[in-house]
Structure formats: structure tokens, C-alpha cells
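Example record for the data management plan.
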Amino acid sequence: MGERSELTTRERILAAAAGIIGEDGVTARLSVRAVAARAEVSTGSLRHHFPTQQVLRDEVMSRVYDWMLPDISIDDTTVPPRDRLVHCLRQVLDMSGTGSEARHSMVLLMENFVTVEQTEAMREAYLAMQRDGQRRMEGWLGTLAEEVDTLPVADIPRSARHLGTVLNGLALERALPAEDSLAQRESEALYAAADMALAPQWMPGADGVTGSDTK
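Corresponding structural encoding:
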């Protein structure tokens, strides 16, 4: 009973915080009083479950992405590792949409994080999303590292950051004018990024192993 009650309180707090973000946007300030009031819990109870706003925001964003991007395909060993990684990366990229949706997504990104004053709330919101993206890609690479011996565990954080940079660039390209279809170029870029991540011979001190064994 105690564990159930504790879990219920935690979930109510997360639902309240997600509701505030849904209404006010990702830069919404998750104040202790506002979230506690919405969840109908005491501020002390909220602090018990989430000692800081950063912890709360990170957990909320993690839940949102877990719902939108389930990690089902990364565990399917009947599919080659590089194909599973590209599939997961494409899921993230597709969140930005195509055409007018991609342009709208980029405009929102600029309005929320680039053209406005960089307040603490804005910085906190962006870094929370960045941390969750890094965590998710490190998780994917960690799973694949158990099958692919060309990916040292120590290199996973750097490889994940590289994948994030590639996704950012491709999302921007979707919002810009293009002379031809982006589908083929995106596939080439995603597979190149996946090969580099699974066999990071580009990193200083690597032994020059190619990505052929991961295909």
C-alpha cells in the first residue's frame, strides 16, 4: 500500500509538470508551488520525490520521449545493428516533420532558444532536452555495443554527441529549400553517421578498424 501510494504521488507530480509544459511550452518554469498545487500535493512531498527543478524536468522530458519514441526496435537482434540504429535516428528526425512542418519546428526552436534572451528557465529547458537526447542515444549505443566489438564502451558518449549533431543538421536541412529529394541524402547521412558511431575509427587513438563488420 505504501509503495502504491508513493508511486501515485510521483505520477501525479509528473502529470502536473507535463501539463504545465504542454500549456506553456518547453520553456515553462516548473516552480515548486505551481506544480505542487496542480498535483494537489505538498511542496515537501514534491521535494521528496524531485529534490530540484532540473531532476523534475529531466524526468518529465524522459517520459515524453519514452512515449513518443519507444526503444522497441533497438532490441530486435534479427535486424543488423546499423539498420536498427538508423531506424531509431530516423524516428527522432521525423519528429521535426517535413516541408512546412519542418519549417514550423525550426521557427519554434529559434523563437524559444535562439532569438530570445537566454534566461535560466530557457537554458534549463533546452539542456533538459539535450540531456535526454544524449541519454537515449547512449542507451541505443550501449545496447548495440554488446553485439558490435568495434564500439568501445568508453567512446559511447562522444559517439552519441556526434549523432546528435548530425540529427540537428538534418533537421535544419528539412526546413531549408532543396533542389532534390532529401530522402536519399538523409539515408546516406544517417548510415554514414551510424557506421562512424559503431566503429569510431575517426577518433584520436583509434586502431583504424572499419565499419564493415557492422553491416
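Summary line stored alongside the record: Residues 120-145 form the longest helix (26 residues).
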